[in-house]
Amino acid sequence: MKDRHVLMPILRLAYSTQFLIALMAIFVLWSHVGGQSHLDLLPWSVKLVLGLAAAYSVVRATAASVSGDRAWNGQAVRWLGLTLALLFACGYATYYAHMNLEEVDEGEQQQDITISQLRLPVGHPTSLTTQ
Predict the structure, then answer these.
(1) Helix, strand, coil distribution of the chain in percent, nearest 5
(2) What is the gyration radius of the CA atoms in the chain, in angstroms?
(3) CA gap 69, 112 in Å, rounded
(4) Is 119 inside a domain boundary?
(5) Global pTM?
(6) Per residue in 34-52, pLDDT tens?
């Protein structure tokens, strides 16, 4: 019991560090896989909730794995399943942004129609003559 009290501050530091690393890794992975332009179109609240929840579930899966007798116990598998579900939700949010939140290009926004005509002047020869 005494060893557990000594280990708890170290585990808390390790889990906090893992949370920060997981948070950075999730956003880097999300921007590379889904595309930064699509990620920029999503509201900040969606990115915040999904990113924090995914990083938290990674840490909880690790904590469940460490606390059990075996690394792959029921709790760890459940947290891993939730992590995969949250990463799927990140992908779906990116797909939604791609399909529905696309920015309109400035070229498409301003559709200037210019009609030009080429007319030959009257009275000028149409062929070149050499002297």
Answers:
(1) 70, 0, 30
(2) 30
(3) 70
(4) no
(5) 0.73
(6) 889 989 999 999 999 999 9
